Predict the structure.
Amino acid sequence: MKTHDPIAPLLEGARLVVCCGPGGVGKTTTAAALGLRAALMGRKVIVLTIDPARRLANSLGLEELSNQPQRIDLAENLETVPESVGEGELWAMMLDQKKTLDDLVKKHAPDPGAFERAQANNIYRLLSSTLHGMQEYMALDKLHDLYTGGYFDLVVLDTPPTKNALEFLETPTRAATFFDERIIKWFIPSRRSRSLFGRVLDPGSVVQKLLKTIFGEAFVKDLSEFFETLEFLQQALQSRGEMIDYILRDEQTHFFVITSADPRRMKEALFFHEKLGELSQKAEAFVINRVIPNFEAADLEVANEARLKEFAGEDAPDEELAALSSELSKAYEALSRLARRDRDALEGLARKIGPELMQRVPMLGQDVHSIEQLLSLSGYLTPSRPVEL
Ligand SMILES: Nc1ncnc2c1ncn2[C@@H]1O[C@H](COP(=O)(O)OP(=O)(O)OP(=O)(O)O)[C@@H](O)[C@H]1O
Ligand SMILES: [Mg+2]
């Protein structure tokens, strides 16, 4: 049997890996495991997550992550660090959307007071944390900094939890970026809306007088200050947009779709695949996570007396052992049905996208909360020897 590994060759040369896919399937965990694997290949890797549930921190065995890159001490967390690590390093950070925007405003503020004015602005405060698409935008902005910063060889980008896959990809995009076009319109107004900006900014204009009458002085002050902030951000964001577009289209950028074998998730994953195609991108690997290993209930020694007694105790009466045996048979039967369902789903996927893109990762007995567990997960993602599920 040949080792099937569509992922490791990509990790060797990638500068950016984007992990996308339906909600709750293991994107964050997979991003961390891929990051670890690449670090052990000798690369300087940062895993950037937008996961508000702090699962990346958890799976790295940390309490929390901040908006600053944080290095994970591999020697401290692994029993043995393979020699292949060489100069390799693993870093992680969690996106703080508001802080990222603040930093951006601070950096581009034309005068020292501009940042303070933005901070005090009600509209800015509201939009910086709630506007749909802002999170994606800020993630891409951070990505830009990490990618161009010169320190890291590889950025692994985890994508945010979405109610369903469609929501994230349906965020309208400019070319291949995950920008929200509505945001772009705010930041990079068309000629017509720019003139509206201009009129709002002009204290003597009819537009401003009208707005003051309708919404009151304070609101209009907030609004015009907000537009002022946008004015000086415009140029910076536009040039970044172009750079990010370039990064996402680079041949060292790879999109991995993470899914589970659950039919609904599978459908969403295929939707991602199609959508990436429409954006002239392609998914270069499909990770099917938490696959139930293939087994038949009948093959398991459910009724083995010694094992039953381990559960029920040495002195358990025969009726109790019989009841336990029947419960176990039912549970095994249910699990083997799920295993068959997973196998069928995998076969269906293989017919659609081809088996060479697919990598399966089995359902582990527990959640992934340590670097050691990530290492065993990465053994399935990039197996060094033949693995049969
Ligand atoms: N192969 C696996 N076996 C067992 N548990 C797993 C496996 N992969 C991931 N998990 C667990 O599943 C849970 C969900 O994983 P994770 O947070 O990575 O999903 P996600 O796709 O990032 O979710 P969200 O869309 O909410 O961000 C976590 O508790 C994780 O430890
Ligand atoms: Mg996640």
